[in-house]
Amino acid sequence: MDKIKKILNILTIVMVVITLVIFGLFLFGGNVPNQLYTTPVYTGTLLTWCYILGVIAIILALIFPLINLFTRPKQAVKSFIGLGVIFIIILIAYALSDGTPLKIPGYNGPDNVPSRLIMTDTLIYAMYFLLGGALIAIIGTGIYRKFKSY
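RESULT FIELD:
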């Protein structure tokens, strides 16, 4: 068990270092010349790294409840409830999303289509809901601990 923790700690440190290096390149690596708007050179690299981290997170979020299903069945039920709540949040975010093409002067690219706009809106709304839930949990936990100590 200690070996696994050590490996996970090393892996976490490596991922944080890679993230900091890529973010530093994004901020200080210069801009693409002759662009209408300021465009950092390493935008694609940063986005690719974010996609990789997101895919890893999704895979782990799906694998660990399945592992717990066999090792700790009662905890697995809680994990599946958590996944269900996230699924419901994504469904609500999808229902709120709008696919109306945007009127962007000077842009004729392929990303201003309803499917891409709905996906983007869904992700943004889901992040808003999850951020709000995290803030409520932080404040609620602080209040709970204050009252629990009395």
